[in-house]
């Protein structure tokens, strides 16, 4: 495992520290998770126009409601 020195604006540091505290994890765990999440592969979504997805969803929803 590697160690780094990180400079953060006070506002970012305070927000990260608060979120880590609320999640009952260390600030180190929070930052490591945030970095891991950022570099993980993004899911590839089909390039389908939103109106097509909405229509498909609406049709399925109506079918389930019958």
Which helices and strands appear, and what pairs or packs with what?
Elements: H1 10-22, H2 27-39, H3 50-65
Give an account of the 3D structure.
The chain is mainly α and 66 residues long. The protein has one domain. Helix content is 64%, strand content 0%. The protein has helices spanning 10-22, 27-39, 50-65. It starts with 9 loop residues before the first helix and ends with a helix. 0% of the residues are buried. The mean pLDDT is 82.
Strand segment count: 0
Distance between the termini: 56 Å
Strand content: under 5%
- Gross geometry: elongated
Number of helices: 3
Average of pLDDT: 82
Structural descriptors:
66 residues, mainly alpha, 3 helices, elongated
At a glance:
By secondary structure, the chain is mostly helical. It is 64% helix and 0% strand.
């Amino acid at each position: 495992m590697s160690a780094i020195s990180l400079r953060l604006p006070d506002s970012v540091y305070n927000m990260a520290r608060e979120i880590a505290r609320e999640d009952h994890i260390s600030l180190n765990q929070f930052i490591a998770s945030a970095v891991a999440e950022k570099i993980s592969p993004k899911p590839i979504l089909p390039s389908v126009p939103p109106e097509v997805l909405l229509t498909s969803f609406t049709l399925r929803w109506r079918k389930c409601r019958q």
